[in-house]
Amino acid sequence: MKDGNDVFKSFRNSFDKINGHFHILEQRVPVERQMEYFKYSAKVRKELELPEASNMDFSVFQEDLDNPDSSVEQKKYLLSVLATSHKVEAYRILEEYAQAPDPAIADWAYMALMESRISLESDFSDEKQIYISTGLGGKGERLRFEVLILANELKPFKDYQCEVIKQEFPYLLEKVDCEVERLVVGEKYVELLFLISVRADIKYTLDRIIAECNEYGNFLSTTFTITNVKEFSQEEIEELIRKNERNS
Description:
Blueprint: H1 5-16, E1 21-24, H2 31-47, H3 58-66, H4 72-83, H5 88-97, H6 106-124, E2 129-132, E3 138-139, E4 142-151, H7 159-175, E5 179-185, E6 189-197, H8 202-214, E7 220-227, H9 234-247
Parallel strand pairs: 1-2
Antiparallel strand pairs: 3-4, 4-6, 4-7, 5-6
């Protein structure tokens, strides 16, 4: 999404009005796959009549998940059944399986574990459980974002400007409880992958950092591109630079 006051304000306000425990998927699961999982899971809950817990043999589920002869579709079904069972034993199986899942079904395993965790916490706690879905995931109550900031007027960064960026970004982000996972300073751009609280003012945070850097020469554009859906590819970065060069 592009930088814009209304977009960022609405994003932050949507969390300020919610009281409850946030659940953010740490793994990076494409949004399309998340939607596919939830539709499938809802179908399982609606159509499947689960037997009583005393009649459920969870060890069979675990054996079938670990069986190399089990198909992907079988494993998807098993994971979804476990996720909707509301049983601690099922959660433990999902927890163990998600540590080293079949790569073909890894996203499904992560989603099933999250659903199971939310279901159990809803059963054991009066606090509202809230699931936050993004393509880049997050950690705790912090979401992962990728930001692309171009050089002002697309002038190549000077050596001292690169050093300012490398020092100021981590320092200022850490001060507001953000975590930098990757900071790349290209010839004409800055690529930042970081974690920030869901309740934080993202635009204010980034505007402030850019302003601090620009005190050393006004070399960063005050307009940036930010996403929590997927990481920018090198081709996308280069295309954005070419587009801005054409429009300048």
